[in-house]
Amino acid sequence: MSGGPIWEVAVPVPLRRVFSYEIPASLGKPEPGARVLVPFGRRRMTGVLLGPSRALPAELAVKPAIALLDDAPALPEDLLGLLREAAAYYMHPLGEVLRAALPAGTDVVERGKRLAKPRISGRLERIVLPTAEAASALEALVRRAPARAAVLQRVVDLGEVPMSELRAVRADASGQVRRLEADGLVAILERDRPPDPFLTTIVARDVPPVLTAEQAVAVAAISARLERGGYEGFLLHGVTGSGKTEVYLRAVDKARELGRGALVLVPEIALTPQLVERYRARFGDALAVLHSGLTERERFEQWRLLRSGRVHVAVGVRSAVFAPVERLGIVVVDEEHDGSFKQERGFAYNARDLALLRAARAPAVAVLGSATPSLESHRNAGLGKLTRLVLAARATAQPLPEVDIVDLTRHRFGPGGQNVVSGPLYAAIEETLQRGEQVILFLNRRGFAPGLLCTACGEVRKCSFCAVSLTLHRRPPGLVCHYCGAREPIPERCGACASPDIEPVGTGTQRAETVLADLFPNARIARLDRDVASGRSAEAVLDRLRRREIDILVGTQMVTKGHDFPLVTLVGVLLADVGLHMPDFRAAERSFQLLTQVAGRAGRALRSGKAIIQTYSPTHPAVLLARTHDFLSFAAAEAAEREELGYPPFGRLALVRVSGPDAGRAEAAARDIAASLRASWQRLGRPPVSVLGPAQAPLAFVQGRHRFRVLVRSPSHDLLGKVLEPALPFFESPPAGVHVRLDMDPMSML
Ligand code: ADP
Ligand code: ZN
Ligand code: ZN
Question: Which of 201, 350, 448, 511 has the fewest CB within 10 Å, making it most exposed?
Fold first, then answer.
């Protein structure tokens, strides 16, 4: 053994431990946060160097690392620290946490015998690296195969050599390298060539407006903290159209003036290109944009712009909370209540919460903004953990839209015998169209109808892989499962009784579009939901709306996201009840947010707007209080209920999700986990923590897997962690076929 130092390495495997490797001196100087290629079992994996081993390694024989992959550490020190803290908080394996923080495409994986960075297209170059055995094998090889030895000698001397260079020196280099690779003396790495200089695009700069009095107060408070330095979290509670974005822009500009970096997190970028344009118009090319609509290559380039310190402002979605912004001065979380900040698979973090943690560690300023803050942030403001800033009026002269509720239990539907558009909504749409203005209609259900019902026997066609009914789609025709994507042809007869009397029940956006076309034959109608539009095509639909080529836009929650269309003066909610009665304690909160946000799309510029909400539950608080945009009353009523149940924000939850194709095995595993949690609770002297379950999940069968869960409820996160800790080994080695996932601070209870 060449006797290099022993380092701790985080390897992306679902184990809550780190691994030790020797770093031979020939590889270069190890640094924390740098990526390293290591042998792992029979594979080679990309890990991240954490630091020199402090204790005796757990491994019997410490293996040498194969290669150091970074000149400068991929993860700067502050990010590495944040991620270690996050891994501990979420009780998630560190290696997986670190991998989630690095842009896809920086991972070196083994494909066949070759090491490759997958899916980064174009401009790849192959690099030949010596393995740890290379140097000692040279001597023997010189006698046995001198040509091959010469190639190996060059690789050992240079540390790493581009394949093209070897080939330029020796015509047979490829063949020799292939054999050296087979003998385990070299490794081949494919990596991208250095990027082209960043192409500059010219963007028209905007002229910042004069701030309203309320905006000026908010900007002054944030600026003062930026100048003083240190951490402070703000909750910017501003009604829809109050000009929160202008406050963010000024705050980011202030940070820049002070030589600090800025990070802005938004729920969705593909759907809100105009929002990014506002940042571009203010900051030009000094801006990195990180979102899922980018190709892996593009995302990597943006990441590298930040990492190299060439750009100091980033706008991005959830995962951008890990963007390597240097000298971070401010983190903004726009629409902080939005569920998309919660990652639901793998490392299940909440980017809003990690943004606060990152700001506190930096230290930097955090600004969480919303018209409908989450109850968590609202309570934190009440407790003084966040400083509340209020924008109570719209930035433009317009008041908030008037909201009417149409009680569907009493109102007749409008003309044509349809049951989608009520009389009052029909009249309002007609008036709006006559004035040459535009309408947005919202229905949170895509497809034609949410069910196909046999009127003879009552059978509703269900998905064979999920315990949910199939949605009828007309374009293209078929029955589709919205949980697993399974698709089957529309049957002619009932599958249970063979009766031909089968009918669509309920309404989705496709049916609404059809009904509207009948009711308003002269209007230009378009639909926006996941079936017509993903990413860039959604942008195209919204552009047509902006250019006034669409009179009525009907769609799912894609139409509710922060859009700002001056001529949209009427917003209709076709059925507020969708989502109101979900078996989830946040159902009312989510409905209130959605209704308030969608109503807020109306009348944002020069003309005043109106919203109409159709519902079978006209007295539900989420509906009633959305009518008056009354967040504080809603929050107070909802908080009273949550407090009684010990639910967030008054308590903490952890959901252990257990699933598998065999219901019996999955349930047994869930029972074992619940038992181990109760045992741990006993040993801790029965703290005020409840272990609930196991129970069947509300969505009990999805994608062919039966789902069970154990819910742990605690007054504090610390106590929750203490009870969970001893049960963690169960999560790492579940019985065959069973999958266990820990969801800390779950957002969805389904
Ligand atoms: P929010 O994000 O709070 O819903 P926006 O930031 O989208 O609101 O602002 C709503 C509208 O008001 C936008 O058209 C914006 O350009 C405009 N606006 C914002 N601040 C001002 C201001 N100080 N003066 C004039 N118009 C403003
Ligand atoms: Zn039937
Ligand atoms: Zn399904």
Answer: 201
